[in-house]
Amino acid sequence: MLRRLIPQEYDFFACFEQAAAETVNAAKLLLKLTENYQDADPIAREINALEHTCDEISHRALNRLNKVFITPLDREDIHTIIIRIDDVVDMINTSAGRMAFIGSRNPRFIP
């Protein structure tokens, strides 16, 4: 009972760092994809896996945000930061998926 009254701390900055690291990895893979269309499908699958990982990080952070009483930043700011980082990975994933699809459907597209 007493634990519910004591404010719990959660390191949102660690979530930001983890999500940002996954974003950087996804961006590097997207660059690799643009340099080599021959491996488009496996690279797009790797990016998709990173996108799912980033989704899990953002869900974990948002769930914790709903449970924590005191936050190091404004709640809206934490929400915005984690959602925007996830949005970047979502856009990278969408771009990679479309590139892989176009490359597989039109072999002349591959340089």
SSE run? HHHH
> Between the first and last Cα atoms, what is the distance in angstroms?
65 Å
**Radius of gyration using CA atoms only:** 18 Å
In percent, how helical is the residue content?
Answer: over 70%
Name the beta content range. Answer: under 5%
Write the layout of secondary structure elements.
Elements: H1 2-5, H2 12-35, H3 40-67, H4 75-105
Helix pairs in contact: 2-3, 2-4, 3-4
What's a concise summary of this model?
78% of the residues lie in helices and 0% in strands.
Describe the protein:
This protein is an all-alpha fold. Helices cover 78% and strands 0% of the residues. The protein has helices at residues 2-5, 12-35, 40-67, 75-105. The longest helix has 31 residues, at 75-105. The model has no long low-confidence stretch (mean pLDDT 86).
